[in-house]
Amino acid sequence: MARRKQIYEGKAKILFEGPEPGTIIQYFKDDATAFNNQKHAILEGKGVLNNRISEFVMTGLERIGVPTHFIKRLNMREQLVRHVEIVPLEVVVRNVAAGSLSKRLGLEDGTALPRSIIEFYYKDDKLGDPLVAEEHITAFSWANPQEIDDMMALALRINDFLSGLFAGVGIKLVDFKVEFGRQYDGDLMRLIVADEISPDSCRLWDMETGDIMDKDRFRKDLGNVTDAYREVAKRLGVLRENGGAGQKGPVLVSDNE
Ligand code: TMP
Ligand code: ASP
């Protein structure tokens, strides 16, 4: 990590200047935070798992034509990504009531929603990422109407892709959050998926047992957080059983580390 210019340090990741203009190195930390940083812990191995899971998901999205910032994974904790201007919104797609939606509307967790619901939250830690309407987004120029349309269309495609991906391995995608970035190519600008898609940013329930396999294990003090992430990775085929020397249990499939 030495001798590289750090651009930004967030709660779960650090961004460094990339080797070429227009690139960034995204480093996955083991830090877990919840409730706007009020709760913090180091979950050993979480960063390694999220790096691999996010790589797997982003690669799958690229394959179906959803553009992402992902270029390649560099090592256990780092990936090379495209430099983007982050749209200051968290785009949440929900299929089943949980979390803040259940609380806000008095729904029971697990209630199937009549259709997938898209929400926007303004990215501002000081304000606790408040829920905002399209009116606020356009009035304050966080995104223009065309960008809102594009983000909604992309979010629904991501939802379809992720729902199928996880259903195939016995996991229900309850909801998830994505972030988008603007990538400039001369006069052209396009929106691409940025940040990460991992159990930190999704709600994932085991289809048979209902077990929680995401960051809610940390938020709700359920324990075994990284075990659950590891199980997600294993089911997606990102881990193989009984790998390298001295390893107990599943290890990371490795090609260049
Ligand atoms: P919520 O129910 O707490 O609003 O969360 C909705 C989804 O967004 C859930 O999958 C967790 C994810 N999320 C984040 O990735 N980052 C956040 O800061 C929050 C609050 C939620
Ligand atoms: N990531 C946010 C935080 O650290 C909130 C959350 O995911 O619950 O505070």
What does this structure look like?
With 257 residues, the protein is an alpha+beta fold. The chain has two domains: 6-84 and 226-240, Phosphorylase Kinase, domain 1 (2-Layer Sandwich); 85-206, ATP-grasp fold, B domain (D-amino Acid Aminotransferase, Chain A, domain 1, 2-Layer Sandwich), CATH 3.30.470. The protein has six helices and 16 strands. The protein has helices at residues 46-63, 99-105, 134-139, 145-167, 216-219, 225-236; strands at residues 6-9, 13-17, 23-28, 31-34, 39-42, 70-73, 78-82, 85-86, 89-96, 112-122, 131-132, 171-185, 188-194, 202-206, 239-240, 251-252. Strands 8, 9, 10, 11, 12, 13 and 14 form a seven-stranded antiparallel β-sheet that branches. The protein has a five-stranded antiparallel β-sheet with strand order 1-2-3-7-6. A two-stranded antiparallel ribbon has the order 4-5. A hairpin with a 2-residue loop joins strand 12 and strand 13. Helix 1 (46-63) runs parallel beside helix 6 (225-236). The longest helix has 23 residues, at 145-167. The two termini are 15 Å apart. The site of aspartic acid has 8 residues, from strand 4.
